[in-house]
Amino acid sequence: MRLSTYQVTQVSEQLINDLQAFDSKLKPKQIVERIENSNGLLLCATFNQRHVAYTWAEKNGVVLELLEFEVRDITRRRGVGVFLFQQLAGLAKQQQFESLRFPETQSPATLGFYRHLGIVPMQDYKL
C-alpha cells in the first residue's frame, strides 16, 4: 500500500476504467489518442494499484502546460495532489522544462489548491 506515480506509455483496461471513474464522458479512444500524442504527457498517481490522480500536460517549448489535473474525491485532502505536483515538477525538470503552466479555473477548490502550492493560474511556475 504505497502512493506512487508513473508516466503512462501504454493503455490498460484498468487505466481506462479508473480514468472513466474521474470523468464518465472520457472515451477509451480519447485516452489512447492522448497517450500516443508525442506532444502530450499523462502522469498518474496510484494507490493499491488503483489510479487516484492524474494530470494531462502538453509540451509547449520549454513550458509544460497542464490541461487537466484531477484527484479522486475520496482521496482529496490527503496529500495526493501535492505528491502528484511534486512528482510532475521533478519529471518536468528532469526532461529540461523550465516551467509549468496551470490552467485557469473558477473552481474554489482548485483555486485553494493552487494557492496552497503557490501557483497563479495561467502564469508560469518556474522549476
From TrEMBL:
Entry-linked Gene3D superfamilies: 3.40.630.30
N-acetyltransferase domain location: 1-127
TM segment ranges: none
Record keywords: Transferase
MF term (GO), any: acyltransferase activity, transferring groups other than amino-acyl groups
Record bears the keyword Transcription: no
InterPro entries xrefs: Acyl_CoA_acyltransferase (IPR016181), GNAT_dom (IPR000182), PanZ_GNAT (IPR040448)
Pfam families per record: PanZ
Name this protein carries in UniProt: GNAT family N-acetyltransferase
The species this protein was found in: Alginatibacterium sediminis
